[in-house]
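Journal club side-thread
Mid-discussion, someone asked how the predicted structure for our own chain would compare to the paper's figures. Pasting it here so we can look after the session.
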Amino acid sequence: MPATADLLVEPDRLAAELDHADPPTLLDVRWRLTGPPGREDYAVGHLPGAVFVDLDTELCGRPGTAGRHPLPDPAALQAALRAAGVRAGHPVVVYDGGDGMSAARAWWTLRWAGHRQVRVLHGGFPAWSAAGLPVDTGLPAPAPGDVTVAPGALPVLDAAAAARLAAGPGVLLDVRAAPRYRGEQEPVDPVAGHVPGAVNVPAPEYVTQGRFPAVEALRDRFAAAGVAPDEPVGAYCGSGVTAAQAVFALHLAGRPDAALYVGSWSEWVADPDRPVATGGPSGR
């Protein structure tokens, strides 16, 4: 079994696991930055037994000065996960609409909350459908779970820690598109640019439509950005969703210590006193 088996699961393997007497808990976390909410996709069809969990309202806190997708209140998160049937010590599989972003943020949130047995369906719902596997439209009624949220199981950066990491030693990865990093455009947040010292590694350079390359390719790309085995690494994006996918990729590459700047750029620019850099190379 590959070393990444505790992080990713392919559709055929998951289908076999769902035939077991006590299958993993499935969470549908489909989400869009703009457009119809993921719950509408869930109603059209979802994996059998999957429960929909909303990224914006259940897996994250309310938007504000801490960013557009801040950390959730632990008690609220625990209630949402228990309502979805998440049990202590029982495996969970999360999936999204195929880009891997909201699934990675859900994976990160559960891991941060202390639930270790959580994997991402590789390729999400489209990969499941393409394999000809069954799709359901019913609403499951899971037995209430008993998971206990114990926050802090994965490292988190606040704005001050992100600034220190960007200044070195170590690397702070900015995984937004290069024009946003350089400050040439900013379609979402009020200020364009990047955290001074951050290195740009746009998400398509380490993941393609929600599918990750071989571990060696991931290690090579991150090494080219200056990620060294003996130095800290963290990631940020616009609001901590795409950056969670970067942290997931770093875990695949053997860096389980990678930190997430949850507030990301949306938090950074909420304080006008924080410095903003523009221009510069798109990466190392």
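Post-session note: The CA atoms of residues 30 and 41 lie 7 Å apart.
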